[in-house]
Predict the structure.
Amino acid sequence: MMTKEEILDAAAEIFRIKGYHATSMSDIAGAVNLQKASLYHHVSSKQEILLELLDQALELLTGQVIDIVQDENLPANKKLRRMIHAYLKALTDHFDLTTVLLMEHRSLKPELHARHVPNRDRFESLWREVVDEGTNTGIFSCENTGLAVRNLLGAMNWAITWYNPKGGLVIEEISDQTATLFLNGLRGK
């Protein structure tokens, strides 16, 4: 018996490989050995699949960082370092799902995009909270929290395009170097 989760997993992989617009419902049905008509017993449309994948991805990523954000025993710089590590690890551990989130969110129709945006904003607000905390406690010097957070997330998001698990650095090393670069900048000692 085919589950909706198996359908979503297959769709995420196909969307990552072919792109949302080049993927047909027949492609998804074929990947899970269903007739196209049978696929519609599980999902109503390709847009529904995409929205569910985006929601899943944001829920996963939020779950990876929320406990760090809420840890009152950690200063903001350590929180941010741990969040960077958790985020990059999640991006690479759940490559299909996170690639769909980062590359295909613009494929949502306007009414579904409007449903997606609050989840995205909630995730981004966790990062803003930590940067603001660091600024308020004097650990960070940040003139524009939104710009800082979008730069950090943007830099990390592109890892999905260049990260190679067989490359010279493992994701933990990349996350450490990314955190150090972001927290210390390029300034010499």
Observations:
- The chain has a mean pLDDT of 94.
- Residues 110-136 form the longest helix (27 residues).
- Residues 14 and 137 are 45 Å apart (CA to CA).
- The domain at 46-184 is CATH 1.10.357.10 (Tetracycline Repressor; domain 2).
